Amino acid sequence: MSLELDCPVDGCTGVCTGESESEVMEQAEAHVNDAHPDLELDEETVEGLKASIESV
């Protein structure tokens, strides 16, 4: 089972994929640092991202 997270930032087409939630979140953190350095990954944001991960 693969997991996928679409970037929630308007206009961004970034997609993070992995076999586990932790893999997807590692990619998401790297994506945020690279593409959205002004976005803060606080606890609320991280929980929202985790809730948006879907099985594909």
Structure report:
With 56 residues, this protein is an alpha+beta fold. The protein has one domain (3-55). It has 2 helices and 3 strands, in the order E-E-H-H-E. The chain has helices at 21-35, 43-52; strands at residues 3-6, 15-18, 54-55. It has a 3-stranded antiparallel sheet. It starts with a strand and ends with a strand. The mean pLDDT is 96.
What are the key terms here?
single chain, 56 residues, alpha+beta, three-stranded antiparallel β-sheet, 2 helices
In short:
The protein is of the alpha+beta class and 56 residues long.
SSE layout:
Elements: E1 3-6, E2 15-18, H1 21-35, H2 43-52, E3 54-55
Antiparallel strand pairs: 1-2, 1-3
Strand order of the largest sheet: 2-1-3
| Low-confidence parts | none
- Described by its quaternary structure, the protein is single chain
Q: Structural class of the helices, strands and pairings? A: alpha+beta
Name the overall outline. globular
Helix residue percentage? 40-55%
**Overall pLDDT confidence:** 96
